[in-house]
Amino acid sequence: MANPKMRRTLEAGGMVVAPGVYDPSTARLIQAMGFEYLYIGGNQTGIANGIPEPLEDVTLLSHVGRTVVRACDNEMPVILDASAGFGDPVHVMHTVESFEMAGITAIHIEDQFFPKRVSYHRGLEHVVPIDVYQQRLEYAVKARKNKDFLIIGRTDGARATADTWMPKGGTKEEALKRAMAAVEVGVDALMILGDFNREDYQYFRSKIKDIPMVGLISTKTAESRSTGVPDFQNLGYQILIYSRSTIVAVLGAVNGIYEHLIQSGRPAKVNAGNVDKENQITNAITGLERKVSIAATAK
Amino acid sequence: MPNPELRQMLAKGEVFFAPTVWNPPTARLAHHFGFKALYIPGKGTGIMLGQDEAMTNLTQTVTVADRVLESIRYEAPVIVDALSGFGNSDHVQLTVRQLEGAGVSAIHLGDTDQPARAATQRKAVSIDQFKQRIGQAVKARMNKDFLIIARLDASSANDPAASRVETVKRANAVRAAGADALFLSNMSPQADDLQFYRAQIKDIPLATTTNSGAQWFVDQKGQPLSLDDYKGLGYQLIFYEDVIQPSLLAVHDVYRKVKDTGYLPDVPEGEDEKAHSIMWRVVGMEEKWAVEAVTTEIGNKPIAEH
């Protein structure tokens, strides 16, 4: 079941800060650190499964979603990346039902082509015509069973590749138009993606009233890395998601370990203090006592 | 099919690390570095699944093995911690068939009683039961290249002084039952256990780990032992377990900063780019872009990565 906490928090004007996770270990770690929301991003989850995001399907994401929800004893509202909805309205309805039944609390659905193109990761972001996008979201909203399950309309219209229905390619104005189209069919929140600076975020917020907006924190650019929770809060964005910082930390650490081992022919010496911290983290993740917190772990 | 290279490497006296992997990206990364074998420890699988290793079952273990092997296209031998075979003789047989069928090249089977308890409350089966367990596993395999490694950690269940004798007894018993190699775990890095066991146990490859918790096998300078050191000591297969925990510590440190300040930590210049290129490499992004460049994206110029 969707967790009602997220809707209530948004209605009360509160912030939803959702670090990215992709398996029980990362989810339990974030929960034990005292965060209240989790985000299952497509890119990061794809990488954790050895595939680029556009090759993911509903089964994989539902599996990850329900595994994460359950690992946290159904206590953490989870926001999940539902990509382009995985097809036409009939498929989108199946997508929504699958994620809602898996116990997810919110999903975002975007206007990219389905099937998605892997080349969107190098800037070739194709979006469907606005009416097709709006219909996608209309049926997504129709398909949900419980109002606590939130549908976030995401548009990539700001940086889209030129197509016949958008001859000059994406603009901020096009993204705004698409966001409005999403609002018309009853989405609960908006997510406008692009390589934005603070003025851009301000622009969107000033044009769109009375609906929560999503900010994305990535490690892709220095600007994105350095835009934090206080900044988005000041800008009036209530939902913050971390798209890739978890897998970046994991792969950075693992790469360093393997590299040292293969190059020097011996393990690196491990700081005893790290071992204590690692054991605390492991106990919080694997222990049967779910109330274990690692907030006190040495900083 | 098991990869015959593992048997061949052990027969030739090669010495190698088998680093821990637990999902496709870690498997691809380790494979990319050229490790000669990859290792899926029960502890790693347990942590990933958010449970103590004593709760890990056969299906979960086979699933992780499938994902790892498929992600590296079966190109390197994978060794799986099969715990204690998940039950009695019939379960051991099923364990062998499923993991061999999955394309794993070796499993290690321990002498812990079933059902398993949390590591600190471990109870060992009798020497006869352990011998039977290993014998059953050897009989159940279809292909000689699928190796049965007997794991000996009787030392953690008994008085350390007495356990050396008991461990050697168990080693000889399971060697007679057909084990292909012995994995000596839970040794005390301070003692001369490594030399002692190699001197006492003849004619079978030995495996061990690099550390026991916070304690590492070190040389006289205090450096963790190198492959050459292990070679000198007569150990061939060195499991390197300490990977998933440091990686979660890295995640912890990132979000500790977020929790405390609202901001991601700063990183040295170039580090994000390096991480992103690793990310793309482990999913084969470039190859997929190349396919789209001549199919769905003909004539479209890439703009910027994101």
Work out the strand percent of chain B. 5-15%
Distance linking N and C termini of chain B: 39 Å
What is the distance, rounded to the nearest whole angstrom, between the alpha carbons of the first and last residues of chain A? 35 Å
The percent range for helix content of chain B is 40-55%
**What general form of chain B does the structure show?**
globular
Summarize the biggest pleated sheet of chain A: 8 strands, parallel
Biggest sheet record of chain B: 8 strands, parallel
Neighbour order of strands in the largest sheet of chain B: 1-10-7-6-5-4-3-2
Percent range for β-strand residues of chain A: 5-15%
Task: Give the count of helical stretches of chain A.
Answer: 12
Q: Detail the poorly predicted runs of chain B.
A: none
- Give the number of DSSP strands of chain B: 10
Features:
heterodimer; A: 299 residues; alpha/beta; globular; B: 306 residues; eight-stranded parallel beta sheet; 12 helices
